[in-house]
Design a protein that fits this description.
mainly beta, Glucose Permease (Domain IIA), Chondroitinase Ac, Chain A, domain 3, 4 domains, twelve-stranded antiparallel sheet, seven-stranded mixed sheet
């Protein structure tokens, strides 16, 4: 009975987190009612969500607490990403991360600012000595914010294995959130994955809308489904925590054929080294084309994620005989709520087929994902490293005429619907590039409407080359236009005595901002960079700037191709 009472106290206390294993009792990172906006391992572009997001009531400024005794092991400040982030290492073998902060506790804030001034740079990645900042459970370590790539005020919270740095599912350490809402199932995709495979007589994926059928789900309208050969499935589903409209990620996913588990995945831990494999777990092509996030219920040959705990034939369905089959998909959230989909289908074995039509097109080359391949044409060299692909492809290349503002033809490299796990190298001959533009040259990506964006790169040995992250259309371009600097709150008379900060907007339309340097009275000044708002912000502090004095401000901004913009003024503060 005493154990039951103690457990009830832990559950009801608003200031405690606890591990379900019972070995760790945490303090809440916030002192407001728990409300989650995002869960662990949600599907994001090129990465999994590595923690949980606490709502902060739509505003910044809430106190953030250490969840357990430990020490500050890392402090990182960057314009994007996590913004201002604090890392605590705990004696139980965990590291906790608090991201998108507005600021740190006083001693840490002073330490960070001193390092920024010493290095004359805003972004820093610091690893203090363990003895420098010991913390106690419940100690205030920062203020919640909206820094970095955050799209709104919240606290991003992570629990990591301190030994491996793998992100663990924080829901094992947070208090039980009241959640009686099962996952929501929206669509199922059926994929013919072999040359002779068909779905309802067609060699093309079929997407079917789902509907509720009592407590479970079924395909809308109950259409007949006949499949032939090697077949795979994908599911579009999300979890919804009671009282929230946010679409959170699934915890567990299981696919069965005639009650036999054919595929299963569970989101307990994610290695950051495996993040980009999300482009194989998802139907990347469908996401790029339609923004639908299908979780594939099969494993491509070069998908090395460790979230798959069981499978038969990598989840690809194949039988030697014709028969009626039953597909069952079971989705579960962390709190045990389950949604089930049942789909009856007729399976037909594949018969030998002729070479598919798409392989009879010109300039298709078999590409083995495990091989390093160099593809050459007169004016281009494309290097695809081994394991850059998740599966074998029939690589396609086409050449298109140049467009205004470009200095080469447009090289159409395979298909943007096929993801890459690592960069490929694109090298284009620079025969049309004037000598005066060699230092300004880069590789541009060209979309289907002719709009161009920078893919980076540089000129060397009569060619321009870049490591690019996606297949697509590429050509040579040049960036000769400097960035723009626009003062936001500096009045015409320069009198800023009633202001608390200086705000300056900096933008660049092509190669992107590479660096900035701001000086007041000839001395480096800490202007924080909010990349999502393109804003530089200097906060007035009498410890670093003399009051009731006129000061000189000089701002230098450089883009990725070395184009400079300068701004100078005087102001009174």
């Amino acid at each position: 009975m005493n154990h039951i009472i103690f457990a009830a106290i832990l559950t009801l206390c608003p200031m405690r987190l606890y591990s379900r294993s019972g070995d760790t009792v945490f303090h809440q990172p916030l002192d407001i009612p728990v409300s989650l906006a995002a869960s662990f391992a949600e599907l994001r572009p090129n990465h999994f969500h590595s923690g949980i997001d606490y709502r902060t009531q739509g505003k910044t400024g809430h106190k953030v607490y250490a969840v357990a005794d430990g020490y500050v092991s890392r402090i990182k400040v960057e314009a994007g990403g996590y913004g201002k982030a604090l890392y605590l290492t705990h004696p139980d073998g965990h590291t906790t991360v608090y991201a998108h902060l507005d600021g740190f506790f006083d001693k840490a804030a002073t330490y960070v600012q001193n390092e920024q001034y010493a290095r004359e740079r805003f972004p820093v990645d610091l690893f203090p000595d363990p003895a420098l900042f010991p913390v106690k459970r419940g100690q205030i370590i920062g203020i919640s914010g909206n820094t970095g790539s955050s799209t709104g005020p919240h606290l991003h919270f992570e629990v990591r294995d301190a030994r491996t740095e793998e992100a663990l599912n924080p829901l094992r350490f947070v208090p039980d959130v009241t959640d009686r809402t099962p996952p929501v199932l929206q669509r199922i995709a059926v994929y013919p994955v072999g040359d002779g495979s068909m779905v309802n007589g067609v060699h093309a994926p079929l997407i079917l809308t789902l509907e509720k059928a009592g407590r479970n789900y079924r395909v809308q309208g109950n259409p007949k489904l006949t499949v032939k050969g090697e077949i795979a499935f994908g599911i579009e589903a999300y979890d919804q925590i009671s009282g929230s409209t946010n679409r959170c990620g699934l915890y567990r996913l299981r696919m069965m054929i005639d009650s036999v588990t054919w595929f299963s995945q569970i989101m307990e831990r994610i290695s950051f080294d495996e993040n980009r494999y999300i482009n194989s777990l998802m139907d990347y092509g469908c996401y790029m084309e339609r923004r639908i996030k299908f979780n594939r219920m099969y494993i491509e040959p070069n998908n090395r994620l460790r979230v798959y705990d069981r499978h038969i034939n990598r989840g690809i369905v194949s039988f030697p005989d014709s028969a009626k089959r039953l597909l069952t998909v079971e989705t579960q959230d962390f709190h045990g709520n389950v949604s089930i989909l049942n789909v009856p289908f007729v399976y037909l074995p594949a018969s030998p087929d002729a070479v598919p039509e798409w392989r009879q097109l010109p300039d298709f080359k078999p590409q083995d994902y495990a091989m390093n391949v160099v593809y050459r044409r007169q004016n281009v060299k494309i290097t695809i490293p081994a394991n850059a692909l998740y599966d074998n492809i029939d690589f396609r290349y086409e050449l298109s005429p140049t467009l205004p503002g470009l200095y080469s033809e447009v090289h159409r490299i395979h298909n943007t619907r096929v993801p890459l796990h690592c960069d490929i190298m694109v090298e284009i001959a620079a025969d049309r590039l004037p000598d005066r533009l060699h230092e300004k040259a880069l590789i541009a990506q060209v979309d289907d409407k002719g709009h161009i964006s920078s893919a980076g790169g540089a000129y060397r040995d009569h060619a321009v080359s870049a490591a690019v992250k996606t297949f697509g259309n590429y050509a040579i371009a040049a960036d000769t236009v400097p960035p723009r600097i626009q003062p936001v709150n500096i009045p015409g008379n320069g009198n800023m005595q009633a202001y608390t900060n200086i705000r300056i907007r900096i933008t660049d339309d092509f190669s992107g901002i590479h660096s900035y340097n701001c000086r007041i009275d000839g001395q480096w000044a800490l202007f924080e960079y909010d990349a999502k708002k393109n804003m530089l912000i200097y906060t007035f502090t009498p410890e670093r700037l003399t009051k009731n004095t006129r000061h000189n401000l000089h701002v230098l901004v450089t883009d990725a191709k070395g184009n400079n913009a300068e701004y100078a003024t005087t102001f009174m503060w």
